[in-house]
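User: What would this chain look like folded?
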Amino acid sequence: MPVYQLDERVLFPDPREANESGVIAVGGDLSVERLVLAYQMGIFPWFSEGMPIIWHCPEERMVIPLAEAHVGKKIRQLVRNHQWRITMDQSFSQVIGACSKVPRDDQDGTWITGDMHHAYCALHERGFAHSVEVWELDKLVGGLYGVSLGSYFFGESMFSKASGSSKVAFTYLLAQLRKWNFSFVDCQVYTEHLARFGGVEVSRENFLAGLQQNLHDTTRQGPWQFDDDVVENPLGFI
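Assistant: Here's the prediction, encoded as structure tokens.
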């Protein structure tokens, strides 16, 4: 399959034409309009500093069907006993900055470039991108961010500076999304960590079909905040 070169027009080829590596196109820009269209089509940007923008739609996609999401015994205990304060959309830029800087065992460097940081902050300002923050007093010790369209949440990245903090953040997010009747969390690629929350791999064809169906639901544009009953008992929703 060819890899398409994008120009200034805000459009993408059919994501089913992605090559064996899941790459569908290169180039274009990271404008809010292009990013929203990309997510609507099941496409996301993933590239490193100094490279052109590379757009992906993998052949296999990991998703968490929220009706089947679950939390293991150890994480449930962590959620019950933690002393952190959990918020939504209180410090988006700080969260994405921390995600770009926290070292990861399976990665050399970061794919969250300066341009990506600015682009997703613009998405956040328009109400499409959201964050969950974990606070120890006034210090940010964990969190995550992603994009929301229809009843789909597209997870992008998470970080922990305190053991288990990103797991707690993700549990609270799943609980709130369940309460709001969201259908899926897109995890993009397989990880054992997300499989423990109920993540499964689906084909590109099935992912795109499910996505289009759920995009008909109204997009809950930000800012977001947790409902009181989710804050009090997130495990009651999972």
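Residues 62-237 form a domain with the Aminopeptidase fold (CATH 3.40.630.70). If you want, I can go into more detail on any region.
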